[in-house]
Amino acid sequence: MATLGFQLKLLAAEPAAGPWLLPVASLTGVLLAARNLASMMLTPTSGFLLDRLDDPRIVAAGGVLAVLAGVIVLIGGRGVTAVVAGVLLVAIGEGFSQPALVVWTGDGAPSHVRGVVMGGLSTAGDLGAALGPLVGYALLGSAGMRPAYSLCVLLILTALLVLGLVRGSAPAAQRA
Question: Has residue 174 been placed in a domain?
C-alpha cells in the first residue's frame, strides 16, 4: 500500500486517463481509509470463523489468497477500477489473515512465554511496516512497478507455502 499513491499518479498521467473525480492524493487517502475500514469490519467475521474451524491456517490461507488476488489485480489491471478492486481484495485478505495469525501464534506459544512471543509478532509487524515502503520505493526506482509487485507475489506465495508446511493448531492444553 506504500506505493498506492505512486501507482495512481502513473495512471493519472496516462493519455487515456481522462478526468478523475478526485485528485490523486485525495483518492489515495480515500482508498487507504477504505482499506483500513474494510479490514476492521471483516475482523469479527474472521474471529467467528476461527471459533468454528479447528485450524486457523484455513482462515489465514483464505485471507492470504485474497491478498494474492488483490496484488495480481494491481499488477495486471489498468485504470482506477482495477486499483480500487485490488485494494479492496487486499483489505479483505488482511481482515481474515491478520487475526488468524495472531490466534495461531498465541495458541502455539507456551503460556509462560506467550507475552514475549506476541510482543515479537507485533515488533515483526512494525518492522515490516517500516521497511516495506523503503524496499518498495527502492525497487520502484531500480526495477519499476511490476517487478516490485511481483516480489510481493513471491512473498505471498511463500506465506502460503509456510501455512501448508507448518503444524496446524496448538494442543488443546495450550489454547488461551
Answer: no
Q: pLDDT tens across 15-40, in order?
A: 777 777 788 889 999 999 999 898 88
Write out the residue range of the structural domain in which residue 123 sits: 24-165
The separation between the first and the last C-alpha atoms of the chain, rounded to the nearest angstrom, is: 33
Where helices occur in 14-169 by DSSP H, the ranges are: 24-52, 56-76, 80-108, 114-142, 145-165
Measure the CA–CA gap between 96 and 73, rounded to whole angstroms: 19
Domain count, the chain: 1
Query: Is position 5 within any domain?
Result: no
In a domain, 3, yes or no: no
Asked if residue 53 lies in contact with residue 34, where contact means CB atoms within 8 angstroms, the answer is no
* Distance from chain centroid for Cα 106: 20
Q: Is the pTM of this model over 0.90?
A: no
In a domain, 2, yes or no: no
